[in-house]
Amino acid sequence: MTHPTTPAIHSPDDAAIFAAARHALDQCPQVPGTVRVHLDHGIATLTGGVRSSRERVAAEDTVRNIPGVQGFVNKITVEPDDVLRRTS
């Protein structure tokens, strides 16, 4: 599955953390492919739209456990199915 995510890499470690976070999100069945992650000096920012708060929390929990993530901002929005279909 391809993702429209271009990593925002601001330090050498961010590239490795991004790769680990993207892989973990891709492997988590509760997290849809609409979730994007960006890194800035170990701070992960999650964006995108999901169908439920359960998916939003699953993405947050997945990234929180990645070695090197020093903090995160969860900007994921819970949106109705029809909105997600138009933006996918």
Secondary-structure class: alpha/beta
Silhouette: elongated
Low-confidence stretches: 1-6
Order of helices and strands: HEEEHEEH
Give a count of the beta strands, DSSP E runs of length 2 or more.
5
Distance between the termini: 13 Å
Instruction: Identify the strand order in the major beta sheet.
Output: 1-2-4
Fraction of residues in helices? 25-40%
**Overall number of domains:** 1
Top-tier CATH class: Alpha Beta
Largest sheet: 3 strands, mixed
- The radius of gyration is 12 Å
What proportion of the residues form beta strands (DSSP E)?
A: 15-25%
Number of helices: 3
CATH architecture: 2-Layer Sandwich
The CATH topology, please? Histidine-containing Protein, Chain: A
Mean pLDDT: 85
